[in-house]
TrEMBL record:
Source species: Bacillus aquiflavi
Record key words, sorted: CBS domain
Residues annotated as transmembrane: none
Name of the protein in question: CBS domain-containing protein
Domain CBS, first and last residues per copy: 256-314
Length: 439
């Protein structure tokens, strides 16, 4: 039987897109406390069922598919630009496909404005009206209002009119940045993308006995299983090491490892990989906010995902991408004589115009990563790094990075990295890395 929390989520999911909801309404409709209703609505917002807009309220929106994540809803635009909705609230759930800046004559502006667009314009009432009739929403900059008949038209057409106190350039920049951030997020693989779902997960219950483990082991050939209570909350993990030597009638609750490490669906695969390598874990239970089992991920799942990430181009370039793309390898005569060169661009500097600590960390980490790949095929997780700034490095400098392998084993590598500018030592780093074999 579904919990009250799950019943509220299911109720919200069945509401028509665009409907306004409130804590009081949900509490009354499902006969639950307002506290329970509030927590469920917040959870629904995290899952993308609803969006909360200041001075408007909480609205049921259409859940965006992952491949459509780079598109924003008008409700999200309101939040991004700190806007106020003047009309057309029923259309806040709709998605915009592009925005148009109205910095031209009316006729020319309308040639670029169509259905699904967002027209960003100042206090030009005719432009507001024309855009709505063309099927576009309107974002009025400078904190201006519009006329009442335009607001009524927006309500009729269910197309939002939003007012923001920011100027046109700032608003366009904020929206562009939000879309760009979404593009970067799109490429980040999360645990929820690779987990084995609950329906396919084999798990044990606290009241089970050791013989149940043997049965599951024979059926699945796996030796690690999460253990849950009657409410499906994870209480432990049981492995072959826990079982061996005990009678088959021994309760699982006495054998399991209690308070196991778990991950949430929104945890990145990279974080999970680090956790698994660091702790030597082969399987992690995936839980929701209430510690209820949602599925599992294995080390094999994580390795496959990491390999997939490396084969896919990044749609939205991060600072790390910009920095590492600057690194150019010059092959030495022997394997250990490789040199990396990198030009310091304005994006890599701090407010003083010298290379930032974070960028230098990225440069030495990437150089060490590339060198270690020449010795062992796989990925690495930085376990420990010590960096010394010896001299400041200014914009347009050309850096030469010399990574030197001090020691490499089956599971770790130790690297010394020296950074030179015009023959002068400007930075030094010592790194210890955990190595992840690609199986």
């Amino acid at each position: 039987m579904a919990t009250k929390h799950e019943q509220i989520i299911q109720y919200i999911d069945q509401l028509p897109v665009g409907e306004k909801i409130s804590v009081r309404q949900i509490a009354k409709a499902l006969n639950v406390s307002e506290g329970t209703a509030y927590r469920a609505i917040k959870d629904a917002e995290n899952q993308g069922y609803v969006s909360t807009i200041e001075r408007v309220g909480t609205i049921r929106i259409e859940r965006k598919k992952k491949e459509n994540i780079e598109k924003l809803t008008f409700a999200e635009v309101v939040n991004i630009v700190d806007g106020q909705v003047l009309g057309g609230r029923a259309g806040l759930h709709k998605t915009l496909n592009k925005f148009v800046i109205g910095a031209m004559k009316l006729d020319a502006m309308m040639r670029y404005t169509g259905a699904g667009n967002l027209l960003i314009v100042g206090n030009r009432t005719k432009a507001h009206e024309y855009a709505l009739n063309a099927g576009a929403a309107v974002l009025i900059t400078g904190g201006f209002d519009t006329e009442e008949h335009v607001k009524k038209l927006a309500d009729e057409l269910q197309l939002p009119i939003i007012s923001s106190s920011y100027d046109t350039f700032t608003v366009a920049t904020m929206i562009n940045r939000a879309i760009y951030d979404q593009l970067i997020k799109k490429e980040i693989v999360l645990v929820e993308d690779i987990l084995t779902p609950l329906e396919q997960t084999v798990y044990l219950k606290t009241e089970d006995i050791a013989s149940k483990w043997y049965k599951c082991n024979k059926e699945t050939i796996h030796s690690r299983f999460p253990v849950v209570d009657k409410n499906m909350k994870v209480q432990g993990v049981v492995t072959s090491k826990d079982i061996v030597g005990y009678d088959k009638d021994t309760p699982i609750e006495k054998l399991m490892t209690k308070q196991p490490m778990t991950v949430g669906g929104k945890t990145s695969v990279a974080s999970s990989a680090h956790m698994m390598v660091w702790e030597g874990i082969e399987m992690l239970p995936v839980v929701d906010d209430h510690n209820r089992l949602q599925g599992i991920i294995s080390r094999q799942d994580v390795l496959k995902a990491l390999q997939m990430i490396q084969r896919q181009p990044q749609v939205g370039e991060t600072i790390d991408d910009i920095v590492t793309n600057q690194l150019v390898l010059t092959r030495g005569k022997t394997k250990g004589d490789d040199v990396f060169r990198c030009e310091v661009t304005p994006q890599m500097t701090n407010h003083l115009g010298t290379i930032s600590y974070g960028v230098l960390t990225t440069i030495v980490t990437e150089a060490a990563n590339r060198m270690l790949r020449g010795y062992k095929k796989g990925d690495l997780v930085v376990e420990n790094i010590t960096i010394y700034f010896i001299k400041p490095v200014q914009i347009d400098s050309i850096l030469e990075i010399y990574p030197k392998l001090l020691e490499v084993g089956r599971k770790f590598g130790k690297v010394d990295v020296e950074v030179f500018n015009e023959g002068v030592l400007v930075g030094k780093a010592m790194m210890m890395c955990q190595l992840i074999d690609r199986q």
